[in-house]
Amino acid sequence: MRDPEAAIRLLGLAARAGAVVPGTAQVRQAVRAGRIHFAVVAADASANSREKLLPLLAARRVRFVVAFDREALGRAVGRAPLSAVGLTDQRLAERVAELLSAPEGGIGGEPVGSGGRVE
């Protein structure tokens, strides 16, 4: 984990730029369409949401982190609590991934934000 607060600010910028897909169902649909470059899944997302989303992200080889809580994730993009957000802009996605990844740049097992893990 490098800078979760900067990642939250960047998610807000991405939302204002129209480069965020909010919500589990919408993220799943966008992943299937090949539009998502990186996803953030809330650490307190329901087991059902995680079971539907995480295997799809892995199968489609979309990088993701499990980080923050639903409240923080929703607030970051100007919405009600969200279980997941996807980034559609490649450069913003890379930067958020970098800010939330382990220092070596990979997706490791480091805690991120408020109790989440990087997966």
Which SSEs are present, and which pair or pack?
Blueprint: H1 4-16, E1 20-22, H2 24-32, E2 38-41, H3 47-59, E3 63-66, H4 70-76, E4 84-87, H5 90-100, E5 111-112, E6 116-117
Question: What this model shows, in words?
Answer:
It is a single chain. This protein has 119 residues and is of the alpha+beta class. It has a single domain, classed as 2-Layer Sandwich (60s Ribosomal Protein L30, Chain: A), CATH 3.30.1330.30. The protein has 5 helices and 6 strands, in the order αβαβαβαβαββ. β2 (38-41), α3 and β3 form a beta-alpha-beta unit. α1 packs antiparallel against α5. The radius of gyration is 12 Å and the shape is globular.
Amount of helix: 40-55%
CATH fold type: 60s Ribosomal Protein L30, Chain: A
Radius of gyration: 12 Å
Strand order in the largest sheet: 1-4-2-3
Main beta sheet: strand number and arrangement? 4 strands, mixed
> What portion of residues belong to β-strands?
15-25%
- Tell me the distance between the termini: 11 Å
Proper CATH architecture? 2-Layer Sandwich
Number of strands: 6
> Count of DSSP helices?
5
Mean pLDDT over the residues: 86
Total domains: 1
Helix/strand structural class:
alpha+beta
- What is the name of the CATH superfamily? Ribosomal protein L30/S12
Shape: globular
Order of helices and strands: HEHEHEHEHEE
Please write the CATH class name: Alpha Beta
Give the oligomeric state of the chains in this entry, treating copies of one chain as homo and distinct chains as hetero. single chain
